[in-house]
TrEMBL record:
This is Dynamin N-terminal domain-containing protein. Residues 12-158 form the Dynamin N-terminal domain. The lineage of its organism: Bacteria, Pseudomonadati, Pseudomonadota, Alphaproteobacteria, Rhodobacterales. Gene3D superfamilies: P-loop containing nucleotide triphosphate hydrolases. It comes from Yoonia vestfoldensis SKA53. Residues 259-279 have a biased composition (Basic and acidic residues). Residues 258-279 are annotated as: Disordered.
Amino acid sequence: MTDAHLPRKPRIALMGEFSAGKSTLSNLLLGARPLPEKVTATRLAPVWMSYGHTPAYRVLVDGSTEPVSLDRLESIPVAQTHVIRLFMECDILDLCDLIDFPGISDPNMSSEVWERMLPEVDAVIWCTHATQAWRQSEAAVWAMMPDALRDFSILLITRYDKLISDKDRRRVLQRVRLETDGQFAASFPISLVQALQAGDDYDKWNASGAGPFVTHLIDMIENLTKVAARTDRPLYNIANGTAIPDPVRATIMPRRVQRMHDTPQIRASETDDQVRASS
């Protein structure tokens, strides 16, 4: 979206600790790798992805900009970089912008690198690894988020397939939902790798947990689009108590989402047995 008179698109951050699945989630949503094969997003400053074919550039902490080479992204000094801007022509970016944050717990990276990007955010998809889900360090970071942003955000319990037994799956899901009650709009267990491998197999897509998650994500984007149309301020900057608008059905959806949009949605309030059956 390049016309300054048009409403801005919602800005959704991909966040979580190191190795929680953010890069795999980005690949799933975009339908392609946004970065070259050898480049690791976790070692970069936040990467802001938008629709288009503008050459990549970085915004320095002083507000100036300079072009960057995709093959040399990892040589960019993180401490001096506010954000890296990438542009792609893909379905999800026609609906919203995605901002891929580095891992919040990386001991080799100052938290200032990602904290200074938070004021740009409307909502978060937070990835937490199922085998060590919702650590205290994650809860501490999430506690700083304003309610207006939480009202739209999603918690993904990733690598859910790594929990072998049904008992373990029920236990982790119950604990995480109890500890995060009221802090996210919804939470979903998911295997991102299985979702990527599903291809056009709808049964495998739904079994991975991606079906209900993507259905909810589209509803969230629809609501955020209405909010973005009436304010230039991202929700991180809006005072608590911002009213949530009524859903407005989007007219453009990614092809995968169009195919899956009519499938039954699993709500966050459904029983553990129902959720387990979809994972």
